[in-house]
Amino acid sequence: MHLDHSHDGPAAVSADARRPDGTRRSLRIGLGGPVGSGKTATVAALCRALRDELSLAVVTNDIYTREDAEFLLREAVLPPERITAVETGACPHTAIRDDISANLEAVEDLEDEVGPLDLILVESGGDNLTATFSRGLVDAQVFVIDVAGGDDIPRKGGPGVTTADLLVINKTDLAPYVGSDLARMSADAKAQRAELPVVLQSLRSADGVREVADWVRGQLTAWTA
Predict the structure, then answer these.
(1) How far, in Å, are 33, 94, 110 from residue 102 at the CA level?
(2) Which helix (H) or strand (E) holds 116?
(3) Which residues have C-beta within 8 Å of that of residue 9, sequence separation ≥ 6?
(4) Any stretches that span the bilayer, and where are they (predicted)?
C-alpha cells in the first residue's frame, strides 16, 4: 500500500515521475465521460492497439460493481493480472478528483505486481460534464462524449469538455440515426477548446481508435523524454 501521497485536486502538479527506487514510473492517462459514451470500449480498443508494443495495465472505476473490469476480462484485451477494479461506493468524482487514495493504491500496486509498465489507463465511472481527474492521479486526461447524447454537448462545455487534454467525440457512425450534426459538434468543440485536440471516432471501423492511440503514443514519447 502506498497511501502517503498528498494532492490538491485537478490543478495540482502531477505526482512524482519517479518510483521510490528511482526508476521512472508509468505514464498514467485517465478516461472520463458520461455514462454510455464509450469509455470502456475505447479502453478496450486502446489495449488491443497498444498491447504488442507497450507494457500496459488498466484500472476501472464503478460505484458498486466490477462490471467494466469484467467486460475487459471477457474481451481478453490484456492478461487478467493487468486489469483491476475500484468500487468507489460514491460519486465517481470523489475517487478520481477529491479522494484519489483507492485509485492511487491500485495503480501503484499494478506497477509493483506486473511492472515495469509503460502506461496505465484509469477509467472513471460514468459521470457528467464536470468530471476531471486530479493531477496527483493521472498525467493527462481524455474526455469521451458521444453523438447520441446530443450535438449541443460540446457547446454546453463544462470542465470535461473544455479542459481535458484530448476530447473524443465517439460513435460518429450513429450521427445519421440520431440527428447529430458532426460538423457542428466539431466546430463547437474547437471553439470551446482553443488549441486542445479533438478526435471524432467510430469504433465500428477497423482502425477507429487509431487517432487516439497515436495521441497516446505522443504523450508517452513526451513522458519518456
Answers:
(1) 20, 10, 12
(2) none
(3) 97, 98, 134
(4) none
Bridge partners of 2, per DSSP, are: none
pTM of the model: 0.89
Distance CA 122, CA 224 (A): 19
Q: Is 35 annotated as a binding residue?
A: yes
**Cα–Cα distance measured from residue 44 to residue 30, given in angstroms and rounded to the nearest whole number:** 14
The C-alpha cell 467486460 sits at: 71
Interval 16-45: pLDDT, tens: 777 667 677 999 999 999 989 999 999 999
Q: Dump pLDDT digits (tens) for 102-154.
A: 999 999 999 999 989 999 999 998 777 888 999 999 999 999 999 999 999 99
Query: Can you list the positions of beta strands (E) in the chain?
Result: 27-32, 56-62, 83-87, 119-123, 140-146, 166-170, 198-200
- The strand ranges marked E within 38-190 are 56-62, 83-87, 119-123, 140-146, 166-170
Residue 39, marked binder: yes
Residue 97 identity (one-letter amino acid): R
- The response to whether 149 counts as a known ligand-binding position is no
Cα dihedral across residues 79, 21, 85, 14: positive or negative: negative
